[in-house]
Amino acid sequence: EEIKARPRGRIEPPPEFKPIATYAYSAQQLRSPFSPPKDQELLLVREGVNVEPDLARPKEYLERFSLDALRMVGTITKPGEPVQALIADPSGAVTRVRPGNYMGKNFGRVKDVSEVKVGLIEIVPDGRDGWVERASNVSISE
């Protein structure tokens, strides 16, 4: 009875919430972030052709670094020889590269060298216990 005789408390009303501006999501038609980009060109493997990296081949110096860490800093041309690219590694050392050399951590073989970029074919895992070839390049940095 003593508790019932006490004055009753008052419950505060909940706070008023400010309305949030509505947002119309309009990215349904865009590419899902979980699917591969369309500009990332995967070279299709022909039936019966097994793409695998040559693990017995000795690694070249530039295969220690990822392609993001390498920079093309120039080219060298000699009469009667193909153009060679000058590639700088993260330490600043410069290495000559010509078609047939390897660079990058994904078994990237240099296919062509031009005045502005080095074109490569990398061998990357396809996510299904196999390998696929992927075109990539290292462009000259200004």
Explain the layout of strands and helices.
Blueprint lengths: L1 H4 L36 E2 L27 E6 L7 E5 L5 E4 L4 E2 L4 E6 L3 E9 L5 E9 L3
Antiparallel strand pairs: 1-8, 2-3, 3-4, 5-6, 6-7, 7-8
Task: Give structural notes.
The chain is mainly β. It has a domain at 41-139: Roll (SH3 type barrels). Helix content is 3%, strand content 30%. The chain has one helix and eight strands; from the N terminus they run H-E-E-E-E-E-E-E-E. The strands form two sheets. The protein has a five-stranded antiparallel sheet, with no helix packed on it. Strands 2-3-4 form a three-stranded antiparallel sheet, with no helix packed on it. Strand 5 and strand 6 (108-113) form a beta hairpin.
Q: Which band does the percent of strand residues land in?
A: 25-35%
The radius of gyration is 29 Å
Q: Which topology of the domain at 41-139 does CATH recognise?
A: SH3 type barrels
Number of strands: 8
Distance between the termini: 88 Å
Q: Please mark out the parts with pLDDT under 50 across 5 or more consecutive residues, or reply none.
A: none
CATH architecture of the domain at 41-139: Roll
Q: What is the helix tally?
A: 1
- Overall geometry: elongated
Question: Roughly how much helix do the residues carry, as a percent range?
Answer: under 10%
The biggest sheet amounts to: 5 strands, antiparallel
Going by helix content, strand content and strand pairing, the class is mainly beta
Assembly context of the chains: single chain
